[in-house]
Each structure stands twice: as structure tokens, then as C-alpha cells.
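Hello,

I think I submitted the xanthosine-5'-monophosphate job twice by accident. Can you confirm which output corresponds to this input? Input:
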Amino acid sequence: MILILDFGSQYTQLIAKRIRGFNIYCEIHAHQQANKIAYDNKWKGIILSGGPSSVYDDDNIKIEKDILQLGIPVLGICYGMQMMAKMLKGTVVVGDRFEYGQAQIFIEAESLLFKGLARENSVWMSHSDHVTALPPEFKILARNKAQEISAFFDEAKKLYAIQFHPEVSHTIGGDLILQNFCKNICASKESWTMHNFYQQKIDQIRETYKSGSVLAAVSGGVDSLVAAKLATDALGDRVKIVFVDNGLLRENEKNEVVAAYQKHLSIKPIVIDAADYFLQELRGITDPEIKRKKIGHAFIRTFEQDSALKNENFDYLLQGTLYPDIIESVSERGASVTIKTHHNVGGLPDKMSLKLFEPLRLLFKDEVRALGLEMGLPKELLYRHPFPGPGLAVRILGEVTTQSLETLRKCDKILIDELFAHNFYHQIWQAFAVLLPVRTVGIKGDRRSYAQVVALRCVESKDAMTADWVKMPYELLGKISSRIVNEVKEINRVVYDVTSKPPATIEWE
Ligand code: XMP
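Support: Only one job matched these inputs. Its output is below.
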């Protein structure tokens, strides 16, 4: 296993994804955990990520020098390089200019890290501080055009530091560098496959959850489906599948989900009709974070108090929480900030009688899909677009009402139907409609109309951490728009969201 210590870089997850792509297992941990976990002898190597801080301005970041002297290979990237330099008594200078984007580096020495690279390489830089003097006994590995130090190393001690980001696709040869580090320097085994993960996870779940019953709350989305299948494979009928109709679902969703579980897991979910309760809880609420928290709490209260479930005395609540949810939601990552409270993570009440059971919490979305395929689940379910736990509530800006839900459902259905009809649905990560809390003037049937606006959001993404808007054919956009304004009487204007993530998020709330 490779340990990635996160200092808050926006690219840390990319490091993990790249390494897992080589079938090598790695975990990201916040730098605050470093002094507790780095000494664990399960690690074959440690990577120190980049980060927004300067080695001189952040008192919070303190990792023990011993971590660099365990005999385990260490690779410092960007801020990680500067930190290594400072800890080992080299010199780091606070920069007065930024080196950002594509840059050339020139390799000056033979090393295992850069084995197989040309002498001159195109890499991705993003820093202003830089190392001006090496720690004693270290050697320069590469410089940039300005003759500044771009990489240094001590091969005998297996310590390496690079100023650029090998995890970013713009670094030509970045994969080779990370592979050299993991395979040749750390001698990590390429044993991280979904087949192995599945078998290990089943054993681990059986070992950890020897008794007790599990409430598997499913949403119809990929994550809860895969989590439910995994839990059921491991624990059999100690797992009960529960589907809450919270009234925030898309058209016909309840029936489709129940049918899918019956067909593919041979299980009939317990369906709880809680639409009135959720709507009542959301009455008058317009703030997105309060909405999310209210919904998270309403789910838990339903699980704990609904008459259909009360006598079951569940011990655990199964959730399809993924790695990015945790990182974005509770800032497990070192220096990152909370962007929004994903309801299945941060929106849960502090006190609840059910203990959380989250078997997918270390997986990325594409790995969850691969696990689903490994378990024999059908592609058409695994490749459905993600749908957020708080449902349509975070796609209705302002107050959620029965009327606004109905309007949004109609728009959403038209969008999705047209994407399927034009073979577009599976080409993109996610597509949905958002109901805006504004009204605009229009003309419908020779009369003045003063009606609502719907926004269409179609994005492509690999893991939802970053996303770009889809350059949809105008004809298709035109068709969707025309159908919406003609078929949904509450709408007289359709707009298309052309913002990437960042700076926007995928959902509007
Ligand atoms: P954002 O809006 O944070 O969304 O860019 C990233 C991805 O996560 C989905 N999403 C959620 N999923 N519970 C979930 O299970 C949530 O509370 C939640 N909020 C957003 C979103 O649809 C996108 O795919």
C-alpha cells in the first residue's frame, strides 16, 4: 500500500486515481493524521502531496522528520518537495513570481525515479516558493529552463522530491514517474483488482459484522445499489433493503427502483412512503445547507421511527458513501474547506442510534461501477447518471413545494428522454434540469406569460471532482427547449448552464 499524505492540493485525488490505475492500492490521509499513521508498517511508500501553503506560513502543518527516516521510500510533490527540503535542512525561498502551467525540465542524473524518461521533459508546474539549496548529501535530479532545482534525490535513502505534478495529464511521462516510484522503488505489488477487492471486502465485512442487522437504505442510484449487493453477498438476509419515497424523486422512479431490485437482487425492498413528512420538513426552507441537513435528519428519523421499521431493531445503516463525498464534505483532506454537505455524510444528526456501515468509502465512482460489474450487476443500472441523496430538493432553488416538484419532474423527463432518443445519455456524466426561483415575461399563444425559468445542466466528468459543461448539438438543445416550453405550462424560458466545476459545482445547491 502507498500512503498519500494530503496537504490540501486540488490534485491529491488524481495521485490516488493514477496509482490505483496501476492496480496498486493507496490511501489518502490528511496531513494531520501523519504522525499517527505513517509509522504503521503496512506502507510500502509515502507520497507527500502538493498544497496551497508556504512552508513558512503554516504552523498547522507539522510532520515529524522521523517519517523521512523510516527507510520507506518517500516522494515529495511540489509543496511536499519544499517541505522535505526544509525538514532536511535545505533552503526554500518564498517566490515573488508564479511558475504555472507547462514547463520544461532537464534531467541531470541517473535515477530509478526518472528511468525511461528523455533528458528533456514537458511537465506541469504550479508553485511560487522554490528550493534554492539542497539538503546535505542530496543530489540535483533535474532543473528547469531558469536553472532552478526541479527535482532532487538521495537514492540510497530512497527519498525523492519533484517540484512539478506527475499526476496531472499535462506532465508527459507523469505515469511513468509514478509507476517507477510505486513499482521499482517501493516494490508495491499490482494486486489491487476489483476481483481481489470483492473477495477481501466480503471476508472483512463478515469478520467485522459478526452479528446485528443492517438497514440498507437505497436510492436507486449506483452507489447504494452496489453497496446493497456487496452487503447482501456478505451477510445474506441480515440485510434489509429499504427504499424511502421522500417525494423528491424523479418521474416513476419508485416503481423502476423496486422492479430493478426484484429483478437483479431478487429482493423486494421495503418501501416507505414519507413524502408528506419530507415536504412538511422542507416547508419555508430556502437555504441550501439547511435543506440538506433537514433532509439528512428526516431520513434518519424515518429509519428510526417509521412503524414499518421500528420493530426490526436495526444495528447498522448501510450507506453508499464514496471517497470524494467524504473528502468534499467533512474536509478529511488537510487544508480543504467544506464545499457542501452531502446528505449521506455531513447531513446526518450527531446522535443516532444506528451505526454507519459504509463499505465503499474508499472507492472512486469508476471503481464502484467496476465492482458492480464484478458482482454481475447490469450495465444499464451501473451507468445511470448519479442522482443526489437530497433528490430534486437541491434542484429547486428556493422553497420546495408539490407544485415545483411536479414542474421539475416534467422538465427533467423531457431532457432525459431526448438524450436517450439521440444516443447522448451514455456519452455524458450527468444531465438534469434545475427550477429557478425567478419568473420572466414571455408570449404563449398570443398572450403575455409571466412564468418560471428552467436551467439545463449537462456535464462531462470522470469522478465529479471536476467537470465541464457538455457542448450539446444546438438542434438537440433546441428540441428539448421547445418541448419544455410547449409541454410544461409553468415554464416559458429555458437556459443552458455553461459553467465548469470549479468554479461552479455540478448541482446548483
Ligand atoms: P457537486 O454538486 O458537489 O456534485 O459538484 C458532485 C456529484 O455528487 C452528486 N451529489 C450528491 N450525491 N448526496 C449524494 O449522494 C448528495 O448530497 C449530493 N450532492 C451532490 C452530484 O449529483 C454530482 O454527481
